[in-house]
Design a protein that fits this description.
The chain is of the alpha+beta class and 159 residues long. The protein contains 8 helices and 5 strands. The chain has one domain.
């Protein structure tokens, strides 16, 4: 496990991957009726999730790829009536007790060759991901950044 941790941290540093929020569902939501949901779930995940989905300003495809069952939740007729407790119950009911994470990366502006770029943490893009383990999250985050890089390079070459 120590090799994974060191490798994962190095990849995050090299590829510009930042975990802005990490929510271990089993620990955060399992006893929510008695203890209430933590702010990181209600405010950071749920409110951002609902607002971003309704506004259409976040690509939820990476979350759907890492947690396919959530697509049903996003298509509910009563989506606008969902509450954080409904989402917590749904995750627990479906056995999704892994980790939700908000992941961000700087938006890269590639030059026309596609081999060099400039970026800044002042201009980022983010998504939500799910993994059964930290390793799953790191893999999903790496794939998400690779997909973004391919899209940014293609855009630069078109210009």
């Amino acid at each position: 496990m120590s090799n994974f941790s060191a490798d994962a941290l190095q990849i995050c540093a090299e590829e510009g991957i930042r975990f802005d929020a990490i929510i271990p569902i089993a620990l955060s939501c399992a006893n929510w009726i008695d203890d209430g949901l933590p702010d990181v779930f209600t405010e950071t995940f749920f409110e951002d999730f609902i607002q971003s989905f309704e506004a259409g300003n976040v690509n939820f495809d990476p979350l759907i790829k890492s947690l396919p069952a959530i697509a049903k939740l996003l298509k509910r007729d009563d989506f606008d009536e969902l509450e954080a407790g409904h989402v917590a119950d749904w995750l627990i009911e479906k056995g999704h007790l892994g980790i939700l994470a908000m992941v961000s990366t700087p938006v890269r502006k590639y030059h026309s060759s596609g081999s060099s770029w400039s970026d800044s943490w002042a201009h980022t893009t983010y998504t939500w991901l799910y993994g059964e383990s930290l390793q799953d999250l790191f893999v999903a985050a790496g794939e998400w950044v690779e997909d973004n890089i391919a899209r940014w390079i293609a855009k630069a070459k078109e210009s």
